[in-house]
Amino acid sequence: MIDVVTSVPSEEAAPIGVFDSGFGGLTVAREIAKALPHESIVYLGDSARCPYGPRDLGEVDGFVQQICTWLVQRKVKLIVIACNTATAAGLAHAQRTFDLPITGVVEPGSRAAAQTTHNRRVGVIATQATVDSCAYSNAIRTFDAGITVFSVAAPRFVKIAEQGIRMAEGPIEDYTSLASKVYIRPEFEEIAREYLEPLRRCGIDTLVMGCTHFPLIKALIGGVIGRDVTLISSAKETAKDVRDILQRRGELAPDSNQPRYDFFTTGGNLEEFGRFGERVFRAPITSLAHVDLP
Ligand code: DGL
After folding, report:
1. At what angle do helices 234-248 and 106-116 cross, to 10 degrees?
2. pLDDT tens digits, one per residue of 105-124
């Protein structure tokens, strides 16, 4: 049963704003909800304009400005850009524009990769726009300038992840095992090999899933890249950063706060967003509304 949200939440229960081009950012939202169980979240999935990856960085920067304006109107206390493409395109601009903390997913993932690698050879798979921006190679090298970064654009993984959500029943990760007939189709493995074999040949020991959609197909990626390569998702690291920022600012919600999770999508099919979103967020989505961002 879905309630349509019409009112702006009151000031004392200031939520955390999280957004992505679609479902992928829900992998980050769920880690935030896990790490900070008293915090309320407003999530926006810009499904009408998904995918962001093939778009021009300037256009995505415009989307970031627009969505942050919308979230600020909803009185959020902090914004998480839970999309690597949007982080690469618009984080710095948004931080300069808005008077509240805004954090992205590239730096947390880069930090985790730099801390994980032993041989200092790190692979990054991301959207075309993220790879073109060099956001990961720059960020990883700020943690350790001696790391060699090998980046591959893997745009078809976004489609596979979105398609997988539609094909599977129940939590999506349960269906991404290589034994599953439902989800991993032979052509998906072929696509994965095409993207990942060159990285294997580079001798990486760490692979950053530099798109928030990719943890949804972690089993496919892990199965092809092999056990000797550690997979990094920025979701958990981002949740830690959110906690640190709020703690520093004395803005953590009190333990007595009853968190609420309000979801919005620019897409046309609310029922579908709710049904698929629950599989990623791993909790019921009871408050969901459509929003138009012209
Ligand atoms: N989830 C987004 C990211 O992290 C990208 C998906 C898209 O292309 O819209 O980059």
Report:
1. 110
2. 999 999 999 999 999 999 99
The secondary element (H helix, E strand) that includes residue 66 is: helix 57-73
Cβ–Cβ under 8 Å, residues 38 and 59:
no
Ligand 1 proximity of 212 Cβ (cutoff 6 Å): yes
Distance 12 CA to ligand 1 centre (A): 32
Rg of the chain over all Cα atoms, to the nearest angstrom = 18
Q: For residue 104, give the 3-state DSSP assignment.
A: coil
Mean pLDDT within 122-141? 97
Share of the chain above pLDDT 70, in %: 88
Cα–Cα distance for residue pair 52/221, rounded to 1 Å: 21
Write phi, then psi, for 287 (nearest 5 degrees): -125, 105
Provide the b/e sequence for 152-183 (b: ≥16 CB within 10 Å): bbbbebbebbbebbeebeeebbebbeeebeeb
Cα 117 to averaged position of ligand 1 atoms, centre (Å): 24
Average pLDDT of the chain to the nearest whole number = 90
Q: Tokens standing for 161?
A: 């992840």
215 lines ligand 1 (CB under 6 A): no
The mean pLDDT value for 44-61 works out to: 95
First to last CA, the chain: 28
